[in-house]
Amino acid sequence: MKTIIVIFIIAVFAISTNAQKLKESDVPAPVKSKFSSMYPGVTKAKWELENSKYEAEFKENSVETSVLFDAAGTYMQTEVEIPVSSLPAGVSTYVSKNLPGKKITEATQITGADGTVSYEAEIGKHDYIFDANGSFLKKEKEDKDSEDDDK
Judging by beta carbons within 10 Å of its beta carbon (0-12, 13-18, 19+), is residue 53 exposed, middle or buried? Predict the structure, then answer.
């Protein structure tokens, strides 16, 4: 019985730490207003709540894009999917030196509210973050389930 309770508690915690899908009606008005002003032509966005931040995911010109806002509607960052070949050269160098045999499966350009650009390279179950020059910054656990694993 104790085992079942422990498993249940772990499952509840795991579910609560992942992003929660939201209906557009559950997104605060200031967030929707800011999103609409930035992307007036986007009519279909998927909304998620993650770590108290609201994320709109959509396609713009057939490119996967997501925008992050705080609850007050303050713009925080934009992520745009890019071809792996568009990553800075330093990213490939880092992967070949530090993760031999691993492959970058997805790439994203991240632009912060202050204009700072960084890059995310998905490798296995982790996202590797690089600065605009391709220098490694940090490694994060992938939010989505992934079939590969790495170091």
Answer: middle
pLDDT in tens, 109-149: 999 999 999 999 999 999 999 999 999 999 998 765 433 34
pLDDT at residue 141, as a whole number: 85
Q: For the purposes of burial, counting CB atoms within 10 Å of the CB of 87, is it exposed (0-12), middle (13-18) or buried (19 or more)?
A: buried
Residue matched to tokens 């990553």: 87
Burial track 32-48 (b if 16+ CB lie within 10 A, e otherwise): bebbeeebeeeeebebb
Q: Is residue 146 a part of any domain in this protein?
A: no
CA count, 13 A, side-chain hemisphere, 20: 16
Does some domain include residue 131?
yes
- If one counts the domains in the chain, the total is 1
Of 74, 65, 79, nearest to 28 by C-alpha is 74
Cα(84)–Cα(98) distance, integer angstroms? 17
Nearest to 137 by CA among 121, 124, 150, 114: 121
pTM for this predicted structure: 0.78
